[in-house]
Amino acid sequence: MKTQFTKVALVTGAASGIGLACAERFARDGCSVVIADVNEDAGSTHAKRLNGNFIKADLSRREGCKRLVEETLRQHGSVHILVNNAGFQHVSPIEDFPEEQWERMIYLMLTAPFLLTRYCWPSMKKQKWGRIINIGSIHALIASPFKVGYIAAKHGLVGITRTAALEGGEYGITVNAICPAYVRTPLVDNQIADQAKANRMSPEEVIEKIMLAPAAVKRLIEPAEVADFAAYLCSDAAAVITGAALTMDLGWTAR
């Protein structure tokens, strides 16, 4: 059965990178898009361009998560698609990993997706249709040194994905995680610069010799490619896909 309503897509961290690409794709597909971010200037500009709405939201606080969903429901009456994308990276050994960074990463990338899912759940359950896309990472499935906060949060996000999928199936709610390798985003650009400085390499060498060393396909993923996958998972064609941690890893885990 084909859906016949205009969908409301709420995308976090949508002022740039993967989140912005998802917002652009959903807008092209006819959704009413809500861009959530702390970057008010960029978020507002993109929302206006996409004929959507911008809501400034600090998702590192429970009040920010709750207000985001309440405001989306006030403006649109429902949420059909939730993309949990907001996040950041910090790299340091466990013994030096700042405790405040750990707490912020776990809240923003694990607790916030749980809370946003929880707050959107009644709307999706009532309409018997919902799509939740959690933007994970290849590091939701494997580990690398010096990224303990990021990896812990992303591994936990897969657990939320699987549990929510089991609970949502009878209500027409599917929940999936997309787990890409390195995507060409501002976050990855910053990592490239940091690695280049630490290893005394050029940015091109960092990409080739560090980031893409385990990959079969030797290039970065484009944000639009992740967005296209997210759109597919929200389509009727993907209605039977749920509870999955789906890799876009350039062949990284084929070894």
Q: Could you characterize the architecture of this molecule?
A:
This protein is an alpha/beta fold. The chain has eight helices and seven strands, in the order βαβαβαβαβαβαααβ. It has helices at residues 17-28, 40-49, 62-76, 99-127, 148-168, 186-199, 203-211, 223-233; strands spanning 8-12, 32-37, 53-56, 81-84, 130-135, 173-180, 245-248. The chain has a seven-stranded parallel beta sheet, sandwiched between helices. Helix 1 links the parallel strand 1 and strand 2 (32-37). Helix 3 runs parallel beside helix 4, helix 4 (99-127) packs parallel to helix 5 (148-168) and helix 6 (186-199) crosses helix 7 (203-211). The longest helix has 29 residues, at 99-127. The chain is globular, with a radius of gyration of 18 Å. The protein starts with 7 loop residues before the first strand and ends in a 7-residue tail after the last strand. The mean pLDDT is 94.
Euclidean distance between termini CA atoms: 39 Å
Strand proportion:
5-15%
- SSE string, helix = H, strand = E? EHEHEHEHEHEHHHE
Low-confidence stretches: none
Total helices: the number is: 8
The secondary-structure class comes to: alpha/beta
Rg of Cα set? 18 Å
Shape annotation: globular
Strand order of the largest sheet: 3-2-1-4-5-6-7
How much helix is in the residues? 40-55%
Number of E-type strands: 7
Question: Residue-averaged pLDDT, rounded?
Answer: 94
Largest sheet: 7 strands, parallel
